[in-house]
Amino acid sequence: MSALEIVRTIPALRAAIAGWRQNGQTIALVPTMGALHDAHMALMQDARKRADRVVATIFVNPTQFAADEDLDTYPRREAADIEKLRADGIDLLFAPNADEIYPAGFATTVTVAGVSEGLCGDHRPVHFTGVATIVTKLLLQALPDTALFGEKDYQQLQVIRALTRDLDIPVDIVGLPTVREPDGLAMSSRNLHMSDHERALAPQMYRTLNAVAERIRAGEDIAQACAAGRAALTAAGFSPVEYLELRDAQSLAAADPAHPCRILAAAWLGKTRLIDNIPLS
Ligand code: PAF
């Protein structure tokens, strides 16, 4: 067991990192909202290979939740999270409270045009500005060499890539493949909220994405294949199905099959919103 240092203020975070920098050590940052599961731990383990020191953050960021979303019920398990970080030899946990991040008078936000629009952006109006703002702040607070995110939140990953490029933040953004349960369900903290019945239906999303990919690869019209995917999700019990679309893998604009593409979906099972995506290739 390594000595996990836990800090809750920006000056304490910066002091710890400055000490490592003085020794010539590199830093990898893994931002999270806690309730850590195996997909988070895969990011931590990959981070460990890329840098001398790994900094995890846990902050359930209120600005990325709209008023009618699940901020209040989002799972919070700090004690269990700390045990996992300790067991994995993570060096530092930054777990600030909301006042440290958004003190009175806070007035600046980061909005990434284009890639934030459509898909989840259509259904979660404040979400990507909240994500872009907190990730910008965390990157500037820690100034890591590398920051790691999961591809499960694929649109978020592209938003983060765009903001670091546009704002000249000198960090290497690494996206890691989605970690799945044995039945294919993408790991997510929100999976904890599903009933047994919903949990049994949930892997249909991944199966449907694969079925749509197969139809497109077999030459079926893209719009028709995606509509069939949406109908399959509805028939399986997802309601509403927010979207299932093929998009350009980088810009998330309309798909041009000559370039890498991604199939992305979002749909609800009861009170749980599930998202997933796969590459077309
Ligand atoms: O993916 C998440 O857990 C969050 O959106 C992130 C990137 C930590 C920002 O709050």
Core attributes:
281 residues; alpha/beta; 19% strand; three-stranded antiparallel β-sheet; binds pantoate; 9 strands
Task: Give me a quick take on this structure.
38% of the residues lie in helices and 19% in strands. With 281 residues, it is of the alpha/beta class. Bound molecules: pantoate (PAF).
Could you describe the 3D structure shown?
With 281 residues, the protein is an alpha/beta fold. The chain contains 10 helices and 9 strands. It has a 6-stranded parallel sheet with strand order 1-4-3-2-5-6, sandwiched between helices. The chain has a 3-stranded antiparallel sheet with strand order 7-8-9, with helices on one face. β8 and β9 form a beta hairpin. α6 (127-142) crosses α7 (154-166) and α9 (204-217) runs antiparallel to α10 (222-236). The longest helix has 16 residues, at 127-142. The protein is globular, with a radius of gyration of 19 Å. It starts with a strand and ends with a strand. 36% of the residues are buried. The site of pantoate has 10 residues, from β2 and α6.
Summarize the topology.
Elements: E1 5-7, H1 10-22, E2 27-32, H2 38-50, E3 53-58, H3 78-87, E4 92-94, H4 98-101, H5 120-123, H6 127-142, E5 146-150, H7 154-166, E6 172-176, H8 196-201, H9 204-217, H10 222-236, E7 241-248, E8 261-269, E9 272-279
Parallel strand pairs: 1-4, 2-3, 2-5, 3-4, 5-6
Antiparallel strand pairs: 7-8, 8-9
